[in-house]
Amino acid sequence: MRHAALLAFALVVAGTIGWGDDAGKLLRADHYVRVKSIVPTIAGQTAQLYVREVSLSETVLRGKAADRVVLFIHGAGTPAEVAFDVPYQDYSWMAFLAQAGYDVFSMDMTGYGRSTRPLVMNDPCNLSAEQQKSLFGSVCKPSHGHNVTTYPSDWHDIGAVVDYLRELRNVEKVSLIGWSMGGPRAGGYAATHPEKVHKLVLLAPGYRRASQVTQPVQLPAAGPVYGTQTRAEFDANWDRQVGCPDQVDPGVRDIVWADMQASDPQAATWGAGARRAPHVSAWGWDETAVKKMKTPALLVAAPHDQQVAPSAVKALYDDLASTEKIYLDIACTSHNALWEKNHLLLFRASLDWLKTGVLQGNRAGVLRMGYH
What we know:
It is built from eleven helices and 14 strands. It has 372 residues and is α/β, with parallel strands linked by helices. The chain has a ten-stranded mixed sheet, sandwiched between helices. A two-stranded parallel ribbon has the order 6-11.
């Protein structure tokens, strides 16, 4: 009997039909994976998870994917296709790996981007009072007073997509690439399903040794349902992390923000425009869990990161039980390293790790790139 996650369908997007005639060209396809949700506000209902695929036709049609299936996992705010498939110059991490022969996918968790958003996220009153006032000039009483999603519901979503890809491409394992909160999302899934994960690449993973181990007494946690980010907040957060001349190409900001708005047309009409993201009740990916993990892992830290300190990434490196692990410090980067001028150092390092499990001749150790 087919896995429940395989109640899915794929839509080939405009311009990519006729794969046999597109040798050497990157193709993009949209998949929608259905999952019986365990998100508290919609538990038991069927949710749809948006999955984007980027690949070369010959990779898929000639069965070259084999152990080269990769799934990108987004962080706390930015949907995956916005984060990892930036349509600007050579800034698409997904396209970079696809050109190297990988079958590359990204997924939006419940509450993000083009995936199912629980209805409580449509009510502006469920924002914090501060964000309501900033966007609308007034404050109303919330209709729901708790977080939307949880780490376990995120891991459940990932599991549905991983199982879908395993059957779709007839592989036993996929590699996971996570950014920011995508670290505990991808890492937490790998901790409980190591038999399904080939390798990990985690950029600025949000790791806390003292994270809560067990489920909170009150679940989901009390508080705003979701949060928003405006363009001004997006720019200000990035600006505070610029520590080198020419660290950022100004052109990429407009492209990323435009994609962000396109992924959330409802919030794009709020105030001067915003994007939504659910608040998450987090527990279960702590020091105890990490010290049992043996999946090969590349952990990337950014020296100017003001959101996930390099020391937190180093703590994760120290705690991982894997004998194949690299801590990589890339010069002149921030939390948004994937959108900055040293992005190709990051992309190439991820490709080397996925292909060989070796960086600069090392299978383990603390390394630096981009320093002179």
